[in-house]
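Hi R.,

Here's the chain you asked about this morning:
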Amino acid sequence: MKTTYKQRLSLYFFLIFALFTIGIIVFEQSRETKFRTEALEEKLDAYTGIIQASMNKYTESPQQAIDSLSGLLPENLRMTLIDRQGNVISDNAVGKKILSENHAERPEVLQAKTNGKGSHIRTSATNNQKYLYYAKRTNNYFIRVAFPYDIQVHDFLKSDNLFLYYILVLFVITLLLINYVADRFGKSIKKLKEFALGENEPEKIQTEFPEDELGVIGRKIVDNYKQIKEREKEITLEREKLLQHVHSSGEGLCFFSADREVGLYNGLFIQYLNTITDESVSDPTILFTDTSFVGISDFLSGAVISENYYETQINKQGKHFNIRVNVFEDRSFEIIINDITKQEKTRLLKQEMTSNIAHELRTPVTSIRGFLEIALEQSVDAEAARNFLTKAHEQTIVLSELIQDMSLITKIEEAPSTFKQEDIHLEELLHSLKEDLNELLSEKNIDFQWSNMANVIVRGNRNLLYSIFRNLTDNAIRYAGRDITITVNKYNEDKDFYHFSYSDTGIGIDDERHLNRIFERFYRVNEGRTRDTGGSGLGLSIVKNAVLFHKGTIIVKNRAGGGLEFLFKLSITG
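And here is the predicted structure, written out as tokens:
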């Protein structure tokens, strides 16, 4: 059974005080016994002095000296004369019988030989009676006296028990005080134990401690515990936030200790790792041995890492990855893998578009500059100058249309929420389009018609829907040829989409390799054809972006009977 703190404390105090008390009792008893013994020995020494005085008087007869004292000394006092050789000269306990046994080796005689006097308690070999012997050395003899060790002598030598009783009472009182002190300490320790073993939610802790040093310690422990619990909650919350961030991050994240042991990581990190290593792995530490990550391994294996940041790029499986390493103060580190394929493609696309825009702007700007320079010359007549200004004006229109088309594409891609959406009747929109292009259609004898468009209502932006059909029609007017038919047909619908076909009976595109790129910005099937016919080169790109805005898709193909056919779908509900 496990003892309590109070029990152990009481036991320790009890043992200490018990040993102390026993020591005091033993010391006091021995001192009192020694004192009483010395008092009795002094009395016996006085008797030996009387005997010695009598012997000095009766020098010729020692026995007569002893007999002369029979009435003066106590009746039970045994008196013995022993010569220097240990022979008994006289002993009143045996009368005139001379003892033949030598007494030189008696303890009291041996002490007297050495110290001049000696004492001893033992049973007499002569009469088998227990005596307290006392011997004293004189010039010629050892004078030995003895009292029978009876109850009277025993009681005289026995120490007084009053002090013992006093010590025992004091011992009991002290035990009670010890128990009281131990109880006070025990209560404080018990409360600390209950506190340590309890649930101990900080807001539920109501432990009260006594107003003493242990109470101060207890309250301090509770306060520190509350602070630790609060810090634990904060750390747990921050860890949960970190876990949520790691697992929901759009980047591959993995944390490593200074010994390269894996900590937290997300699934995207493993996915990117598998793509780069071309292996199916689930252990992030493979990057320390794979040759694709040799730069990272060299950086982390440096004897002294002077920099806390390292970045590199890896191209694998047609994808571009940006990899960053951040080293923390404790030499742990994180590795971040980011798929930048889309950004890289966007960068290349922007680079290509910038080049194309510069190329497209160069022609009208150069033309405008040339026409204006010629018109400003004094040798040019008024009619020629007007002709050059007219051509410059036409080029500004081309330039304006190009800028408008570029702005429209940018707005569709980057700010689609700015376009207002409403219910649009497509048949009404086609009527409006035909009226706007009637002159151009008549000029090239083009028949523009549609079918199955009654009650077709699309939730979308009117301007963008108009631009889809306008740019497709402009494209057919410019490039399909004369005497053709343009047909718009709603050939299918489901609960989410209308499916349309836009076709012409023109010349089509002979090399079908161009069909996959026809929606790219500034792409030309025939170099110079767009400029010759006045187009910006962005019409079909606008068509594709407008269709995508309405959650649709679009493809193009050559018709079996000649011409092009565009197949696209538009969301009904927007």
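One quick note: The chain has a mean pLDDT of 81.

Cheers,
M.
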